Every structure is written in structure tokens, then in C-alpha cells.
Amino acid sequence: VLQEMAKAECHFINGTEKVRYMQRYFYNRLQFLMFDSDVGHYVGFTPYGEKWAQAANSNPQWMEQRRTAVDWYCWNNYKVFTP
User: Fold this and answer.
1) Which of 11, 23, 70, 73 has CB atoms 3.0–4.6 Å from 35's, for a disulfide?
2) How far apart are CA 5 and CA 34, in angstroms?
3) Which domains, from first to last, does the chain contain?
4) Which own/partner contact pairs does 30-33 have at CB distance under 8 Å and 24+ positions apart?
5) Number of C-alpha atoms within 13 angstroms, CB side, residue 59?
6) Where does the source fall among the domains of life (predicted)?
7) For residue range 51-68, what is the model confidence (pLDDT) as tens digits?
């Protein structure tokens, strides 16, 4: 069975003092691509993931949307993510 999964996560550290957005991509349980708001760009973990990272990192509109995800995704969903 082949399975692909994408996961977006918000990590609230010390309440809302520090917020970190992560977007991770998996194929057959192997993470091949990740965006971390602390790093600010995509990182590939496999040859396939490196190609995706290179393509995503070279798209300025896409990267601006990812870099601002802490504001539009994490903060808007804070009450959903916290108990």
C-alpha cells in the first residue's frame, strides 16, 4: 500500500511566547520534505524531497505564504490547538 500524507502543525512554546509552524510531507511513512518557520525554507530529506524543496523555495509567492503561516494559520487557530 502506497500512502502519502501532509501534516501542518503549530507548536506553541511557553504559551504564546514563541510560535513555530511546521509543514511535513510523508510517503510510505518516510518524511521526504519539511518546512519549518524557524528555518524559513523547505528542506528535502530524500532526492525526491530535495527536488520539491528546490521548486518550492524558488517560488516567491509560495514561500511568502509559508513564512506568514504563523500569523494566518497558527494564531487564527490557537483556541482549536490548545486545550
Assistant:
1) 23
2) 12
3) 4-81 (3.10.320.10)
4) none
5) 12
6) Eukaryota
7) 999 999 999 999 999 999
